[in-house]
């Protein structure tokens, strides 16, 4: 919802403006966080139309936009431009309406005396806890321009690896979906007509043809129940994957899938090493780095490993010894981390490991794509070939007998 407000700042001057909030209470809280005393808050008429709500639902800020934004902020900080002017300038130049609103809110928060990290933290759907922690560290150390450049590089690397892994899995999923749809259409629309001709001919039908006809009759006769069963199963699965146990099971299953599981493992190891090394190089403590990494690793198995490691590190145990206990963590990662701790170069070691695993992910994706393409062609050829052969061979036999 969009609200207009009148308020008084700390100097006693009247301020007018608008604020985007869920309700009146949230709007007042936002205005007061800027250091203003609220005089009045009113919802702007028409801001809740159906069209506005639909447009807002589809608005999002992409990872690419955050990367570009971070680089622009770093460049402007390096040019000695003030933080308030930076966010106002970038907000006015953005083509994304949601990003414009966020930049405006951040600018207002900064004008009200808020820190950059606190202003960013008000938008968790755009700026992750990792991003906010890095900015907070940059504020404390006085190296914001370097911090935002670090963030841009990190997000760029993370996006590249994740996008490549995701695209590698989209292709086989699409091909298999098309294959299933084609087979179902043939079994429900084409085979019933042809099977009737075979039955009426009185000729003996081969066993493989009877199997295909039986599958076709089952799909045709129980298509409604099958659709209902799929819908029920889909609903149960959707509900299950929203629970903690369901998320844990699915994340665990991802790591056990042949070939793909190895890809996921390297992807998460890349994310862990990159997160921790980036934060350590920015002067953030290991404890805080582990806390943030556990939130952004995006896999319950590795999240639990990081959380257990965090407990051990707080108790005085080394990072390398803590992660060495888990079979999901390669021994080379634990051994090199131990060397890094002993030499005081853990950040550099983790950066090297992150680069290594990123390269492994790229190689695994290329290998997977190379295997999938011929496998899909063979699968499609066999499926369609068996289906057609089981129908056409009896027809040729009937034709030859006439």
Characterise the protein shown here:
It is a single chain. This protein is mainly alpha-helical. It folds into three domains: 2-57, no CATH class; 61-127, no CATH class; 159-402, Receptor-associated Protein, CATH 1.20.81. It contains 17 helices and three strands. The protein has helices spanning 24-33, 50-58, 63-78, 83-93, 97-111, 116-121, 129-141, 144-201, 207-221, 223-241, 244-254, 260-281, 286-296, 300-314, 319-323, 331-343, 346-401; strands at residues 2-8, 14-20, 37-43. A hairpin with a 5-residue loop joins strand 1 and strand 2. Helix 4 packs antiparallel against helix 5 and helix 12 (260-281) packs antiparallel against helix 13 (286-296). The longest helix has 58 residues, at 144-201. The protein starts with a strand and ends with a helix. Mean pLDDT is 81; it is low at 46-56.
Describe this protein with a few key phrases.
single chain; 402 residues; mainly alpha; Receptor-associated Protein; 17 helices; 76% helix; extended
Structural domain tally: 3
CATH superfamily placement of the largest domain:
Type II secretion system (T2SS), domain F
Q: Radius of gyration, Cα only, in angstroms? A: 29 Å
> Structural class of the helices, strands and pairings?
mainly alpha
Reported for the largest beta sheet, the result is: 3 strands, antiparallel
SS summary, helix count: 17
**Helical content class:** over 70%
CATH topology of the largest domain: Receptor-associated Protein
Order of helices and strands: EEHEHHHHHHHHHHHHHHHH
Unreliable spans are: 46-56
Shape: extended
Note the beta-strand portion: 5-15%
The side-by-side strand order for the widest beta sheet comes to 2-1-3
The beta-strand count equals: 3
Distance between the termini: 77 Å
CATH architecture of the largest domain: Up-down Bundle
**Overall pLDDT level:** 81
**CATH class identity of the largest domain:** Mainly Alpha
